[in-house]
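hey so i finally got around to running the thing on that chain from the lab meeting. sorry it took forever, my laptop kept dying and i had to restart like 3 times. anyway pasting the input first so we r on the same page abt which one it is
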Amino acid sequence: MSNIDRFILTKLNNCEERTTRRNLLKLFLIRIERAQIEQERRLYEL
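ok and heres what got predicted. didnt touch it at all, straight out
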């Protein structure tokens, strides 16, 4: 987990504003999806 991921999770845990929470969650899900794509790409390179 990167520093950015930890930052997003910390903000998600502390944020009470609904729109901001939703946007942070979207951002975190995008980061997860990109990490999965990168991992799959690396597997195919082997």
